[in-house]
Design goal:
31% of the residues lie in helices and 22% in strands. The protein is an alpha+beta fold and 170 residues long. The strands form 2 sheets. The chain has a 7-stranded mixed sheet, sandwiched between helices. It has a two-stranded antiparallel ribbon with strand order 4-7.
Length: 170
């Protein structure tokens, strides 16, 4: 690939996006491309081929071998001021698992969470009657955290071979 490596270009994209936000207070629509690049690199996934169905950003390897994976991104700037949401899930597209890549204000990945399609659809089906979020595939970051399992963290790297329990002690 030309003179620059993809990792170097992504690093520069992170820097420019963070500087742009500091200068203007607005975000550049680049977080999802950074998230896809990071998820593929950090989790050892295969990039989706050009002819992959819409809604498929990567193909699973290892325990997720052959799975179509949708990747969503969220840069968290000041959680105390808002209830961040993830981008619309493509419920009408064929995918098996969704990853949420959470980034800090410098667009550096802090955590990657994963949920299978059945879990996501069951959660959206639990919305009260008349609520339109299921159709739109809309969900808050907080809700996704409850149903997903952490698969990578900045502190620990790849999270594996552990029994994970999302039930909170009460």
């Amino acid at each position: 690939m030309g003179v620059y490596s993809v990792d170097r270009l992504m690093g520069e994209a992170r820097r420019l996006a963070a500087e742009y936000r500091r200068a203007t207070g607005k975000t550049l629509p680049i977080s999802n491309e950074i998230a896809i690049s990071d998820a593929v690199r950090l989790l050892g996934l295969e990039p989706a081929p050009d002819d992959a169905p819409a809604g498929t950003d990567a193909i699973g390897t290892g325990e997720w071998a052959g799975e179509a994976i949708q990747i969503k991104a969220r840069a968290l700037f000041d959680e105390s001021r808002s209830r961040p949401r993830i981008g619309q899930l493509a419920l009408d597209k064929p995918w098996d698992r969704v990853l949420l890549v959470l980034m800090d204000a410098s667009y550096e990945t802090e955590e990657i969470l994963a949920a299978d399609r059945a879990t996501v659809e069951d959660s959206l089906a639990d919305n009260p009657p008349g609520e339109n979020r299921r159709k739109r595939g809309a969900m808050s970051v907080a809700r996704f955290r409850i149903l997903a399992e952490p698969v990578w963290t900045r502190e620990e790297g790849r999270v594996r071979d552990e029994v994970w329990d999302n039930q909170r002690d009460e």
